[in-house]
Batch of 2 targets.
Target 1
Amino acid sequence: MTKKIISSLSGWIFVLGIFCLLAVGQGGRTAWICLGAWGVFPVISYGMNLLLKKKLEAEFQTPATVEKREGKTVCLQITNPSWIPAACVLCSVEMCNRLTGERTEEILFMSAPSRGTVRKELSISSDKCGYLELSVRKSYLMDWAGFLPVKCSVQAEGRVAVLPDTFEPRVLLKQEAARQEDADSWSQERKGNDAAEVFSLREYAEGDSLRQIHWKLSSKRQQLIVKEASFPVEKSLLLFWDKNAAASTAEEMDAMAECTVSIAQELVRQGITFTLGWSEGREEVFEEIQTEEDNISAIPRMLKYGAEILENEETFGSSGRISAYGINGRSFGKIIYFGKTVPEHEIFAGESAVTMVVCDKEVSHPVFPVVVFTAENYQEDLETIEL
């Protein structure tokens, strides 16, 4: 922008000098009129822009999704409801991939006629999956000469999901139990609301239901004893992508996304119902996946946010630990954990059936079964995977 202002100012001064020479040399009335008009020309335009700066409206017109490396055209539309024409609107458009953190910027110039609409097209393309967010970072109204900018309030945002490429891994899912056989159905660590199994016994307290009273034992002890209900453990499957496990490059985030989506897609093809989860800042999001439509619907939402590395904190489960016996009230019998590396903190409580799929070359002394892959060869590394 600075170069454009200097160039425009230099051109204006050059023309002004010519008019000065003509006016002084010839002394004609026409030359003096041209000199005066050229001198006030930018000032009048600048004043008009001051009146116009808060009246322009803008919006992006974007497709909902695009494929990787697919060139698509998006449109920035500016509407001018005022009678004052906008000679030149300069917009700095930033495109940010929220998953990988990559950013690009493009400068657009357009003219908006009075009470009219103008559209400017720009091409977008990304060689990595994610969630592209387009925004007008800065906008200026330029005078007709092009060197007196007026900052204006043009604001617009657009969003496009860049879908990951998928491959077809051969997934062999081991349906092992999460705990001992006699503890398959109920948790040994937390109470619940399943009265079919007793979790513990305690003395009666005000508010307890009469149905909880253990009458036989109460008669023996000569005091009311109640039964605590057990918490049932479902033999359910969780696929969780921990984006916060460690700092990752754009290539690694792209590879982890493609691996997570591809394995989820293969499980759907095999008719396996599961829960798809991912970290979203300091929170965890869970989606039930029963059909291909459920999986397709969840993918753009999973790509909306990248990593948020939390120093001196557990990266996953910052709002609760995960185990076969619950996270935030949920229970899972089998957990498949995706991440950049094996977490340093003990995030899996209990004795969960866990398999880790990590984007690393090697892992030292893993506590759980680990499958490793690299961002360069993830399709070959995960061609056949036993989870």
Target 2
Amino acid sequence: MSILELTVTAPRLQAYGKDWQLAVPGSYKPQRPLIRMAGVKNCLTVMTSKQHPRRLTILGSNGQNYVFLLKGHEDTRQDERIMQFFGLVNTLLMSEPETLRRNLTYAPVLSSQSFANF
């Protein structure tokens, strides 16, 4: 893995990340407080797999980190099917008391190709 600094590779993203009034992608739940994007961590990790996806960490207004995998030049339909599969897995995990107690889930968020091109 290699590390990219956002201040060098995407300075606007790093600079404007603190002023956004946007919800953290995939975090919206009705009747719950909105979790907003409070910033973006400066380091972007480039994975060593075939397509070199990037791992981006968004800081939530609730103090938690939200990690996203950014991929470009891919067929997003395949990613959508994988997300549906993980949704099914989450449903099955939540039906078991032990996994529910341990809060075991997996939450990928599909983004358009343009989202990966800051």
